[in-house]
Amino acid sequence: MIITLYSTILIIFLFNFYSFTDASTSWQIGFQDPATPYTEGILNFHNIIIIAIVIFTSWLLFRCLTLYKKELHPISHIQPY
Q1: Model-level pTM?
Q2: Which of 12, 34, 41, 45 is buried deepest, with most CB atoms within 10 A?
Q3: What digits encode the pLDDT tens for the residues 8-62?
Q4: Phi/psi zone of residue 27: left (φ > 0), alpha (ψ -120 to 50 degrees), beta?
Q5: Are 61 and 53 in contact (CB under 8 A)?
Q6: Residues 6+ apart with CB under 8 A from 31
Q7: For residue 43, how many other CB atoms are within 10 A of its CB?
Q8: How far apart are CA 18 and CA 4, in angstroms?
Q9: CB of 21 closer than 8 Å to CB of 32
Q10: Left, alpha or beta for 11 (phi > 0: left; psi -120 to 50: alpha)?
Q11: Is the Cβ–Cβ distance between 53 and 63 less than 8 Å?
């Protein structure tokens, strides 16, 4: 009885080729598939936050590039040789 139990545990741990849970893969980009509704909500919130950050930084870059006036900001501290 005990030998059968030990051999069963050994077979389960040593020869566990297939897992029924979702696991990460090598070089995976992004999260694993969510297992609960709470995790799914966190994943959706993360996606919304990332989109908002990208839009905001793109807007800031656009504003800096379009509103910069070279005439208002001359380089006066550089002296030619």
Answers
A1: 0.55
A2: 34
A3: 776 666 665 555 556 677 777 778 888 888 989 999 999 999 999 999 999 999 9
A4: left
A5: no
A6: 43, 46
A7: 15
A8: 22
A9: no
A10: alpha
A11: no
**3: which 2 tokens?**
């030998």
**The residue to which tokens 């990208």 are assigned:** 54
C-alpha distance from residue 37 to each of 21, 34, 41, 44, 62 (Å): 16, 7, 6, 10, 38
Tokens for 28, please give them. 């995976």
| pLDDT tens for each residue of 4-22 | 777 777 666 666 555 555 6
Instruction: Report the candidate in 76, 78, 74, 58 with the shortest Cα–Cα distance to residue 66.
Output: 58
Structural tokens at position 54: 């990208």
* The amino acid at 58: S
